[in-house]
């Protein structure tokens, strides 16, 4: 039985509908950030070294093709070269303590932390347990910029970029799901992320104001494990007996008796009963032979009512005891309501 819905079976893949969790890790590459100074109007290129990325996802599958995810992600970004467009003076940002005449990359990083809502479409075909998917996401990109260095050509001028901001972000997703058994998947995922970028800066001699530009051309390739929570344990009910009472010399069900049969049927179905024993009884009025037949009719009436309410007839067994097993002992010929009954014993 699928957890939280029916399983989506496609060839060798069986993914249960409902909730799942996933973790991903991999490689991140981003093109240079082209940031413009709000005061000088000059563009600077901030190169970000290739790094690592990690993601956590909580998702819900609606059907074999559609699912949604809430995704948290982190993309590292150590700063490489920082150069001014057209090599104008100052032409770049150097390490704060460079060797004479050299301009090494400044210290710093621009890291990205995202919270995204994704919509994923799984294609309806697979081969060798591999199934492609595509998706789109939207959310927030929290950029944390920490860069510090001296200006090339003006070593007395130190500049610090130390700021963070939250910007709307969008991403495109494509990948392959590789089935591991009937529940888990290995996800090979490519993500393309884009958002705006904005950082305040501080300089000892020149006011560069706010650096503005785009955080785009962000490419991430990850490997992840996607797995739904284990299904809940099957309901195992304890054995239980229900008692149905009849009018004198009757085998049809009263309104009260029908209510008891309904309770018994629901209980049997809730735990998938493996055996339901219905035993009819009679009081001591009438002959012993007649009471055997009456008790059998009573057990048959109850069994038919159970089947009509969805209990599997294959697990129902019938018996009739006549007046041989009295609930309340009486003399022969006594009309005793407690003895005019049928018992329903349900076992799992």
- Class based on secondary structure composition and strand pairing: mainly beta
Low-confidence stretches: 1-13
Strand content: over 45%
Total DSSP E strands: 18
The helix-strand sequence is EEEEEEEEEEEEEEEHEHEE
Please state the oligomeric state of the protein chains shown.
single chain
Major β-sheet annotation? 12 strands, antiparallel
Give the helix tally.
2
Please, could you describe this protein's structure?
- This protein is mainly β.
- The protein has helices spanning 255-270, 288-308, and strands at residues 7-10, 13-16, 18-30, 33-37, 43-48, 51-61, 66-75, 79-84, 92-94, 107-122, 130-151, 154-180, 184-203, 210-227, 240-245, 275-280, 316-320, 341-347.
- A hairpin with a 3-residue loop joins strand 12 and strand 13.
- The longest helix is centred in the C-terminal third of the chain and has 21 residues, at 288-308.
- It is rod-shaped and about 120 Å long.
Brief overview, please?
It is built from 2 helices and 18 strands. With 348 residues, the chain is mainly β.
